[in-house]
Amino acid sequence: MTTSSKTAVDQPVSLFSKTRTQSMSLNRIISERDAVSEAREAKTARLREQRLEKEADEMAAAAALAALPKRAGKR
Prior knowledge:
Elements: H1 2-67
């Protein structure tokens, strides 16, 4: 009788342990996914900022070049 009661207790404990392990694994996977997503968003923001700065510099250079007086060509 003690064997069957021990088995009856071991099965739910084993199932709970398995469920807890799966839950911990799922939480770790979600955490890693979130970290990758945050890193991607940060990199995208940094690259966007650099692109916008470069475009602004190029526009300023083009405006400065257009503002220079044109020289008459040699004949």
